[in-house]
Design goal:
Blueprint (H helix, E strand, L loop, with lengths): L1 H13 L10 H8 L3 H13 L3 E4 L5 E4 L5 H13 L5 H21 L2 H16 L4 H18 L3 H13 L2 H4 L5 H19 L3 H22 L1 H5 L8
Antiparallel strand pairs: 1-2
């Protein structure tokens, strides 16, 4: 772990960016003064955390990549599973977090992200009969809001939460009337953000998530009460 921390510190100190190769193994062995087995375990740990990828073969080796929320989602899922937490836990967390994100978006979001929100709303509207597109746009909409809030923590948290609580994977279905309701909610949230109205943005998002919870409680209560399990769906 200490060697892994030093490698990350050196990545930052050198100003390495995604796609940069790290020094050859022999140079790292000299620099960190550890055995080959320890160095390789450290690099493998960083690969599992999404910091590097290990390319095999001649000219291969460790290459810097952009970490995503998958490791966070795995860690959260395991923590929640061993706490015997139900899927309702994730829905409640989103109910607390996403209105605040929407409020920040109305204050901070740039025009490019606002255009992405509008595009997502339009794409969903034009494909309400296609559940695959609906689910993709539903996730994209919430991702854009999370990352557009200007708070990196929110972006990664929502990525992780959406990865855990994929309604289609855990058994929550979206008939067309629900897809239409979701689209209408997204449109209201988009309008509030584009109008730079923080209060309306927060209120619209709160009602949107609340509607989801009410729908799930009415139609799929056993799903919300089911324990979170790593690898579910």
């Amino acid at each position: 772990m200490l060697v892994a921390q030093r490698i990350v510190a050196d990545i930052n100190d050198r100003g390495n960016v995604v796609g940069d190769r790290l020094p050859p193994e022999r140079l790292m062995l000299e620099k960190y003064e550890v055995g080959r087995g320890t160095l390789r375990e450290s690099l493998r740990f960083l690969e599992l955390q999404g910091v590097i990828t290990l390319k095999p073969g001649p000219g291969g080796g460790p290459v810097v990549v952009q970490p995503d929320a998958s490791s966070l989602a795995t860690a959260l899922t395991l923590l929640l599973q061993f706490s015997n937490a139900p899927f309702r836990t994730i829905a409640e967390a989103r109910l607390g977090l996403e209105p605040m994100m929407s409020q920040l978006c109305a204050e901070r979001m740039n025009e490019e992200d606002i255009a992405s929100l509008e595009d997502s709303v339009k794409t969903m509207r034009n494909n309400l009969d296609d559940q695959t597109v609906f689910l993709e746009e539903n996730k994209r909409f919430h991702d854009v809001i999370a990352h557009g809030s200007g708070n990196a923590m929110f972006g990664y948290l929502v990525d992780a939460l959406l990865g855990i609580l994929d309604g289609s994977a855990i058994g929550i279905e979206y008939p067309e009337y629900r897809r239409e309701a979701v689209h209408d909610a997204h449109f209201q949230i988009y309008q509030a953000i584009a109008s730079r109205d923080p209060g309306a943005a927060a209120a619209s998002m709160h009602e949107h998530i609340q509607q989801y919870v009410r729908y799930a409680e009415k139609k799929f209560p056993e799903v919300l009460d089911a324990p979170i399990v790593w690898g579910q769906g």
